[in-house]
Amino acid sequence: MIKNSFISVISQEDKKENRGSVEFQIVSFTNKIRRLTSHLELHRKDYLSQRGLRKILGKRQRLLSYFSKKNRVRYKKLISQLDIRESKTR
């Protein structure tokens, strides 16, 4: 399995202080998603990991929509740093 370089957008000091912040949770979910996607490229029939990936994607989607409503400027900055697409609004 190839090790991917994961994102460290938030500095080490902020990690210890702000583990409950929305930005930290989005970054950690993104790291988990990238790790699971690389795992599923090798193990295509791992259905439990596929289910876990879908659950994490849903959680991140809900957090992103909440964060975009709360602070649009920081949301745009975080989206660009993580290199993920902007969520569709309903």
TrEMBL record:
CDD domains, per the entry: Ribosomal_S15p_S13e
Localization annotation: Plastid, Chloroplast
GO biological process entries: translation
Any one GO cellular component localisation term in the record: chloroplast
Domain of life: Eukaryota
Heme listed as a keyword: no
Keyword set, alphabetical order: Chloroplast, Plastid, Ribonucleoprotein, Ribosomal protein
GO molecular function, one term: structural constituent of ribosome
HAMAP family to which the protein is assigned, alphabetical: Ribosomal_uS15_B
The family this protein is said to belong to: Belongs to the universal ribosomal protein uS15 family.
Subunit record text: Part of the 30S ribosomal subunit.
NCBIfam families documented for this protein: S15_bact
Protein name in the entry: Small ribosomal subunit protein uS15c
Species of origin: Terminalia phillyreifolia
Upper taxonomic lineage: Eukaryota, Viridiplantae, Streptophyta, Embryophyta, Tracheophyta
